[in-house]
Amino acid sequence: SGSWITFNSDTNKGNGTYVFTNTSWVDAYLTKYCWSVNVTDGNGWTNETYYFSTRALSTLINAISPYNQTSSPLAITATGDSSLDNVALWYRYSTDNLTWSNGWWDADWHYRKKLSISNASSGYQMKIIVGNISGGNVTCDGHTQKDFDDIRFISNSTGNEIPYWRENYTDDAQATFWIKNSYNDSKIWMYYNNSGASTTSNGNTTFIWFEGFYGADYNASRWEIYDETGSTHVTVADGVMSHISDSSTHSYFQFITGYNISCPGSKILCTKVRSTYDTNPWATMPYITWYTENATDTDAVRILYRTEGGNRHCSMSNLGGSAFEGVADISSNTWTADTWFHFNFYVDPDDEYLKTQ
Predict the structure, then answer these.
(1) 85-103 pLDDT per residue, tens
(2) Where are the domains of the chain?
(3) Where does the DUF2341 domain start and stop, copy by copy (predicted)?
(4) 293 with 302: CB under 8 angstroms?
(5) Quick check: pTM over 0.85?
(6) H-type alpha helices, the chain
């Protein structure tokens, strides 16, 4: 039963073979199709009707071994008709023989890889470099979006999505991610290959404290500007906050006192800093200080980012991590002008003072 549907026609074809590709047939098994072909030479019509039927696919699960599985890996073997082009094997499991799970986080993601974490610690932030075809800590074998928007990290123990921040990426090459191991997993899943996915990168949920310098202006609720002559200029662009001073003797921008940040245990903060001058200690590097009124008070954490002298241009980029107790002065080191330096700050658990790595 059903009505006739015109697939295609060609009024210019002479002797020979007429080939066309049909994309309109219903994808149904055990269905009989009728194919009517009409041909004319200009004097009369010739019609032939052909029939063909689709049949059900023959598939069989051969074995699940071992049947009562308590650890990985689980071996499942199956066979199907030799004419099959693609086979997808779906499974589900139960820990109590009452409730069932299919083991896959989201069917819109078609690939995943299991990643191992050494010395896992709950809430710890770690960096993962993902390569599209090659390179990095793990590769997607060419199956991710070119901008890595479809990368997701999933807890192996809970099945929940793990917070992450994508620091940077190069199209079709590799991307740098930071994840927060919220569930203290020694293994996590990385899912990828979803052409419709958008990134859910979020530094604020990944780090205890995060400043990405997004937008075109600094966050006045976090940063305070000071200059003796009133002419200090601060700009924000492309994830970088820059401080350009004039010939004043003292100018800086600082993280506003009283912004509460706690530091449970030994945590690390990472940032990049650059100065355009290297002629004296004040100019070679901004004077960066994490400061509290005493070693146990975290209510007055402060960053001083300072130049002293004239015409200094200092920049800070992508600040993420935790708050600390103590003070770190790194202005007296030797630096190369106009060069980005990476800094890791950490709290020494023995004396509770901030130090640099």
Answers:
(1) 666 666 666 666 666 665 7
(2) 1-103, 106-206, 211-356
(3) 147-225
(4) no
(5) no
(6) 203-206, 281-284
